[in-house]
Amino acid sequence: MNFKAVPSPWLKWVIFALLAAVWGSSFILMKRGLVSFGPHHIGLMRIGIAFLFTLVYAFRRLKEYRSVDFWPLAVVGFFGNGIPYFLFPMAVRKIDSSVVGMLNSLVPLFTMAIGVAFFGKRVRWLQVVGVFVGLSGAAFLLSPWNAAPGQELIYGLLPILGTVMYAISVNTIGQKLVHLSPMALTLLSFAIVGIPALILLFAGTDFVEIVSTRPGAWQSFGYVLILGTLSSSISVVLFNRLIHMTSPIFASTITYFVPIVALMWGAFDGEHIGWLHFAGAGLILMGVYLVNRKR
């Protein structure tokens, strides 16, 4: 998209809407990819595709690498761009993609909690209340009376673990890697996990056999391709540009719209969605609001 053609006052809203749509659609894309591939295929493909795509437009940023940054970049690579990419499709395989999308909204809560516990950040009592409100919403979503028949809700813990890892990554970036440009940070962190992921995908899985023999495999690969390029590469750059144009507070409000998009896709795909789901999502978003609320 040519952003130069968008009037300046509207540009932030265009980027905002694109990010909410792309990130909210990630979970239905995982679901479509799982038609032909396993969660480990999805994770390896997504990481590898994101790395290669980022390398194409940001390879010049490799010069920003410093050896002292290796371990923080490794943390961001594995916790921000690696392990969660396996946890989320594992969850989507067993529970509704809309529920996984709603649980993903816990990231700001865990970001605050981990920042307080391990990075010396200060906390207000209202933020503590927000964490407990948000977690109660997650428990509500995963409660037995709120489940569709046949769903294994133990898998609901996987996206929660993924949000904890995202939170570790966010805090690491804020404390250790603020000197890197957004493109360099994206490329270098993906490089650490992307190269091993590509080797494992082709040498350690039956990926080639699946795309060669299984009907519909290329269509599923197309969904993962969108996931890797838009959700895992371009969106990071757009998000950082949005922060630069506005503020972290404005950019963080995308959190409120991602589960709405995920719910809409779930309803379109025939997933079981009732008022209890809206109640659980509402509690999570209320918790996020309290955590982000100014004095």
Characterise the protein shown here.
The protein is mainly alpha-helical. It has one domain. 73% of the residues lie in helices and 0% in strands. The chain contains 14 helices and no strands. It has helices spanning 8-33, 39-58, 70-80, 84-92, 97-103, 107-118, 125-141, 157-176, 182-203, 207-213, 217-245, 248-252, 258-268, 275-292. α1 (8-33) packs across α5 and α3 packs across α9. It starts with 7 loop residues before the first helix and ends with a helix. The model has no long low-confidence stretch (mean pLDDT 86).
List the helices and strands and how they pair.
Blueprint: H1 8-33, H2 39-58, H3 70-80, H4 84-92, H5 97-103, H6 107-118, H7 125-141, H8 157-176, H9 182-203, H10 207-213, H11 217-245, H12 248-252, H13 258-268, H14 275-292
Helix pairs in contact: 1-5, 1-11, 1-13, 2-4, 2-9, 2-11, 3-8, 3-9, 4-8, 5-13, 6-7, 6-8, 7-14
Tell me the domain tally.
Answer: 1
SSE-based structural type: mainly alpha
Number of helices: 14
Write the H/E string, N to C. HHHHHHHHHHHHHH
**Strand fraction:** under 5%
What is the general shape? Answer: globular
Q: Main sheet, how many strands, which sense, barrel?
A: none
- Please state the CA-atom Rg, rounded to the nearest Å: 19 Å
- Compute the average pLDDT: 86
Could you list the spans in which at least 5 consecutive residues all have pLDDT below 50? none
How many extended strands? 0
Query: Level of helix content?
Result: over 70%
Rounded to the nearest angstrom, the distance between the terminal CA atoms is: 38 Å
